[in-house]
Amino acid sequence: MRFINKLGPLKVLNNHLSVYPTPINLSYAYNFGSLAGVVLASQIVTGILLAMHYVGHVDLAFNSVVHLMNDVPSGMILRYAHANGASLFFIVVYIHILRGIYYSSGNQPREAVWITGVVILLVMVLTAFIGYVLPWGQMSFWGATVITSLATVIPVVGKTILSFLWGGFSVDNPTLNRFYSLHYTLPFVLAGLSIFHIAALHQYGSTNPLGVNTSTSTIPFGSYFASKDLLGLLIMLFVFACLVFFYPEALGHPDNLIPANPYSTPQHIVPEWYFLWFYAILRSIPNKAMGVICILLAFVALIAMPFISTMHIGSPKFRVLSERLFFFFVADIALLTYIGQTEIADTTIFVGQVCTVFLFLYLVVVYPFLSTFESYLYLNAVNLAGHPTGARSQVS
């Protein structure tokens, strides 16, 4: 141990991986942060290898992907590992964020952890979108056309921004080159943000699932929780292997196996599944500008969560109404994801509008104020029972 402490890099690893103090009762729900780091590393490695064979030109991009899959040894595995790795990355990060909301992990004094997490999600969304364009299939081309055109809702400079994104008057070769350059760069930005996210987390430590201050009830991470993270990693790798080797196109769209054709519009343009809940919100609002504003407001509400929360009791196990509404919120996002892939009809638009209203009600009204209401009910119940009301659970 003295030898390790004398060496700077080893000392940092020892402090943040081995002897890092961890609440004694962390559940498997806390595994997903480390799993996200593993998937990000996998995406960077497979992305670099794919870039060795990809050609960023509209006449050659689709054929370069076909060549990679058919002629390069293990190229098909490499391509499917990267494509399904993006889906796995979003699955892990979405669960990680939902766990943070469930346990109020971003509340004071961990605001920096939460804000950097939301920024990471935003960069992930941008990186995944421009990566989806690179294979230059039908859905890639038309998805890029539809999504980039949303920039026109920005007053005054909207059309200028759109022209810069396109590099001309339509989605074409300059657009592909811009997206290729950004998609190669942004994962390294994600890696830097992740390091900052971990540093902010380790400044104050992980929250306790019970929602109480247990700074004296901690154990070293490496000795007790590394095996739990390893088990989670093995399960994730098994799911990943099943996707890559048995169901490689299960999460993709068949139209993207057709070369991009600017003269043939697909019957139903949809983004990747992890963007469908965004897409459902856009479709449910008739005005395009208001749809974009609502998407931005959803991220603003996520960033503001630590500052608008009035939570006094950290664990949802002691806030039964909050726990039930949280699961309604999760079901609402799942329903928006389903609605986003269905054809446009009066029924789907109405359901999408109802789900959108509930989403914002939860983020802006329920989450900030429900805990105050629950505390009021608790104090009244204690008063009726004739017990002292001064004691409160400590803030997590």
Automatic annotation (TrEMBL):
One Gene Ontology term from the biological process aspect of the record: mitochondrial electron transport, ubiquinol to cytochrome c
Stored Pfam families: Cytochrom_B_C (PF00032), Cytochrome_B (PF00033)
Membrane topology: Multi-pass membrane protein
Keyword vocabulary terms for this entry: Electron transport, Heme, Iron, Membrane, Metal-binding, Mitochondrion, Mitochondrion inner membrane, Respiratory chain, Transmembrane, Transmembrane helix, Transport
CC terms in the record's Gene Ontology section: mitochondrial inner membrane; respiratory chain complex III
Cofactor: heme; heme b
Membrane-spanning parts: 28-56, 77-97, 112-134, 141-162, 182-201, 230-247, 289-313, 325-341, 347-370
Domain called Cytochrome b/b6 C-terminal region profile: residue spans: 211-381
Residues binding heme b b562, per UniProt: H82, H183
GO molecular function: metal ion binding; oxidoreductase activity; quinol-cytochrome-c reductase activity
Boundaries of every Cytochrome b/b6 N-terminal region profile domain copy: 1-210
Cofactor note: Binds 2 heme groups non-covalently.
Residues noted as binding a ubiquinone in the record, renumbered to the chain: H202
Subcellular localization(s) per the UniProt record: Mitochondrion inner membrane
Chain residues that bind heme b b566: H96, H197
Domain of life: Eukaryota
InterPro entries per record: Cyt_b/b6_C, Cyt_b/b6_C_sf, Cyt_b/b6_N, Cytb/b6-like_sf, Cytochrome_b, Cytochrome_b_C_euk/bac, Cytochrome_b_N_euk/bac, Di-haem_cyt_TM
Family: Belongs to the cytochrome b family.
Protein role: Component of the ubiquinol-cytochrome c reductase complex (complex III or cytochrome b-c1 complex) that is part of the mitochondrial respiratory chain. The b-c1 complex mediates electron transfer from ubiquinol to cytochrome c. Contributes to the generation of a proton gradient across the mitochondrial membrane that is then used for ATP synthesis.
Protein name: Cytochrome b
Organism (species): Dunaliella viridis
The gene coding this protein: cob
